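Ligand-bound model needed. zinc ion.
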Amino acid sequence: MELAQPEHFECFHCHKIFLGRVYEVVRERSRLHFDGRVAHVESDNFRGLECYCSRACLDARVDRVMAREHVPATYPGRSRIANCAICHASVDRSAFHVAYLATLSEPIDATTWDTVELDYLAVLCETCSTSKKRSNEDDLLMNFPSLK
Ligand SMILES: [Zn+2]
Ligand SMILES: [Zn+2]
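Prediction:
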């Protein structure tokens, strides 16, 4: 993804250049607030892994993306307690943790994007999310086009 021109994307699956709505698979460190009826997500370390022109293209790629991350997609839903995708330990999602998500974002104006759909692919416990060496992971992600 080229951040200097956020309105232009190339689909990782069909390689179409497209504008506007974008589907993404992202890895983020986030926590959920359950004090209201709807969980509010607070996140940092948000990192888009791949972007797609359609849900069909996302679905076609998601298994491969998660395999590359060595994290199985477990679709944990939105409950407060979920199981780590790797070791199945309980993860309290009101505390910061690493999550993988499939999102659909829409531009509101030139600089503001709104996430209109969000599916959780996996959550990781603290042990599993820190077991990989950070530097190796960053190298892998920076070079990810070559891993297709
Ligand atoms: Zn596509
Ligand atoms: Zn774990």
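Confidence is low (pLDDT under 50) at residues 143-148.
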